[in-house]
Amino acid sequence: MKYFSVAITLLLLSACEPPQAGEPVTRTRIDGQAGATPTAAASDAPSVASQVESACRSIIFENTSLTHCLAVPSRHRVAMVLGPEGQGPFRSLTAFSGTRDPATVAFAMNAGMYDDEGQPIGYFVSGSERLKTLNTADGEGNFHMKPNGVFFGTGDKWEIRTTDDFLANVADRPEFGTQSGPMLVVGGKLHPEITQDGHARSIRNGVGVDDRGRAHFVISNAPISFGKLARFFRDELSVKNALYLDGSVSGLWNPATDRLDTGAPIGPIVLVERKVADDE
Question: Signal sequence: where (predicted)?
Answer without folding.
Answer: 1-21
